[in-house]
Design goal:
Elements lengths: L15 E5 L5 E5 L4 H13 L6 H25 L13 H11 L6 H15 E6 L3 H10 L3 E7 L2 E4 L1
Parallel strand pairs: 1-4
Antiparallel strand pairs: 2-3, 4-5
């Protein structure tokens, strides 16, 4: 990506620019198959009374994610305005809430969010800017352009 982000070739005719954070500006790699991740996550769930064996938690997580993705796809396809996004994002917090519920624990939204953050911290292999990202954003800022960055549907940042 960086080799294409020379200051001279950036389009300056627009006043507002919107970027998706992950996969566009930031290269992130996560690995969800590490056994240690599931051991630590099962321990975290246990702190709140939701007792899982690591492999059980991994299996239930995968099944719930798959269920949520199917449901989201069905919902989106019924929407006549749907543009067939390649990888629509599910609300992962709902998966964590359901995992607690399956063990008889009522998890509020805050606990679900914190569980998701812990999961992401455990599963993140690396996070780095794509080459040229800083220079491109600096150029747009220098030209006093409005820059917005979207992390996911629920998070929106202005630079």
């Amino acid at each position: 990506m960086g080799e294409y982000l020379q200051e001279a070739v950036l389009p300056v005719q627009y006043d507002n620019y919107v970027f998706d954070l992950y996969g566009t500006l930031v290269d992130i790699h996560t690995e969800e198959d590490f056994p240690k991740l599931w051991e630590k996550l099962a321990l975290f769930f246990g702190y709140y009374g939701a007792i899982y064996e690591p492999k059980e938690l991994q299996k239930r997580y995968a099944a719930l994610v798959s269920d949520c993705e199917r449901a989201l796809k069905k919902t989106l396809e019924e929407d006549r305005h749907y543009t067939h996004e390649a990888s629509p994002e599910i609300e992962i917090g709902e998966v964590f809430e359901k995992l607690y519920q399956e063990k008889g624990i009522v998890a509020d939204k805050t606990l679900a969010i914190h569980t998701g953050q812990f999961f992401r911290a455990l599963s993140t292999d690396y996070v780095r800017l794509y080459p040229g990202t800083q220079q491109m954003l600096a150029s747009l800022k220098k030209w006093t352009k409005s820059i917005s960055v979207i992390e996911c549907p629920a998070h929106f940042y202005r630079i």
